[in-house]
């Protein structure tokens, strides 16, 4: 956020990337719902997309702040839970 505050072009690029990430997650969740692997209404699915995005973006840094080495498998576990 510090860099994007100073570099508007970077901010636009990151917003574009985040939008693509969220659309991909929404598509995956919709597919799970269509296959009856997930039960949810549209607002809850939207919140789940947001939560998964936040977890993906900040989980490794969070682990490092806590003194861990930051492992991708932990991120995957957190998202799956």
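-> sequence recovered:
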């Amino acid at each position: 956020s510090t860099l994007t505050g100073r570099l508007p072009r970077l901010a636009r690029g990151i917003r574009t990337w985040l939008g693509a990430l969220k659309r991909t997650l929404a598509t995956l969740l919709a597919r799970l719902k269509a296959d009856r692997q997930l039960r949810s209404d549209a607002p809850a699915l939207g919140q789940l997309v947001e939560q998964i995005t936040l977890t993906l973006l900040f989980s490794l840094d969070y682990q490092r702040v806590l003194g861990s080495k930051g492992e991708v498998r932990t991120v995957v576990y957190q998202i799956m839970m």
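The chain has four helices and no strands.
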